[in-house]
Amino acid sequence: MKLGNIDGRAVLIEGSNAVDVAALSDGRFGPGLDAIYDQWEEFVTFASHAEVTGGVPFVLSDLGCPSPMPRQVFAIGLNYQSHADESGMQPPSIPAVFTKFPASLAGPDSVVELPADTVDWEVEMVVVIGRRADRVPADQAWSHVAGLCVGQDLSERTVQFAAGMQFSLGKSYRGFGPFGPYLVTPDEVDDPDDLGLGCTINGETVQDGRTSDLIFDVSSLIAQMSDVLPLLPGDVIFTGTPSGVGQGRTPPRFLVPGDVIESWVDGVGRIRTTCVARTSTEAS
Ligand code: ZN
Predict the structure, then answer these.
(1) How far apart are the first and last CA of the chain?
(2) pLDDT grade, residue 85 (50/70/90)?
(3) Interval 15-28 mean pLDDT
(4) I want to staple 181 with a disulfide (CB 3.0 to 4.6 A). Which of 108, 217, 258, 268 is the partner?
(5) Distance in Å, CA 272 to ligand 1 centroid
(6) How many angstroms separate the alpha carbon of residue 199 from the centre of ligand 1?
(7) How confident is the model at residue 178 (pLDDT cuts 50, 70, 90)?
(8) Cα 46 to averaged position of ligand 1 atoms, centre (Å)
């Protein structure tokens, strides 16, 4: 199942068509995605039996964020050996967790203002929680996952490393958490623990990795984090980035206005993020 967001309404993706969930279910589910995550198991049962027909054609720019206002957003630093190496850091002994504040999230075809000249890219597989996960053992973890997306953990490196590490602030500028293009349930991919992911900038491949190289895989992350606190329906986990970010280059390279980032996870989809100069002093 593929589940998207168009104008705040949940839609099932059937090929190039989108089918409104609230209409399909006579108002039982939706209209928005947040309400669906809170009834995730009932919704999956309904969707597996529903006869999904019709719908309307859509394009990438019609789609919004697949979990628009989660209660919690987790992101994992240094979760690929290759990225730890290029960062000159030892891989951590427990997951290096920070948050991207929910108001920084964006959809799969977004425009992001660059607040500084040291903004970097990080392609990541994104996990959305379906069933509440509270002290879940690793071998049960995937049953709590609603689905997968591709995301960018955009990072303003100067703020990130200021004042004794400001990861959450430096990665939460407006629009710094785009993901999508829609939620893809784990059964839709061959092996959710081994998916290719990468990104290009203006067509040049800068990152190309596999989720099988995660130091802490999805099961381990959910087990370790849910031992600390419950993971709630709709919560979002940015699982970490492989090597190839700009800061790790000699000389470092950062995003500039006009850059277009295309990011993918195999079997999940692609998103596009367009960088522009910061123009406004007062955001609308
Ligand atoms: Zn990251």
Answers:
(1) 35
(2) confident
(3) 95
(4) 108
(5) 17
(6) 13
(7) very high
(8) 35
Give the Å distance between the CA of 28 and the centre of ligand 1.
Answer: 36
In single-letter form, the type of residue at position 125 comes to M
Distance (Å) from CA 25 to ligand 1 centroid: 37
Give the position of tokens 């430096």: 170
Q: Average pLDDT, whole number, for the chain? A: 96
DSSP string, 135-168: S--GGGGGGGEEEEEEEE--EEHHHHTSTT--HH
Q: Which two tokens stand for residue 140?
A: 């049960």
pTM comes to 0.96
Q: How far is the CA of 97 from the centre of ligand 1 (A)?
A: 10
Residue 10 phi/psi, 5° resolution?
-75, 135
Cα-to-centroid distance, 79 and ligand 1 (Å) = 8
Q: Tokens in use for 161? A: 């490393």
Q: What is the pLDDT of residue 8?
A: 97
Residue ranges of E strands in 185-277 = 196-201, 204-210, 236-238, 260-265, 269-277
Compute the average pLDDT of residues 6-31: 96
The rounded Å distance from CA 98 to ligand 1 centre is 9
For ligand 1, the distance from its centroid to the CA atom of residue 34, given in whole angstroms, is 24
pLDDT at residue 283, as a whole number: 59
- Residue 17 pLDDT greater than 90, yes or no: yes
Strand order in the sheet with 196-201: 109-114, 269-277, 260-265, 196-201, 204-210
How far away, in angstroms, is 76 Cα from ligand 1 center? 6
User: What's the CA-to-centroid distance between 118 and ligand 1, angstroms?
Assistant: 15
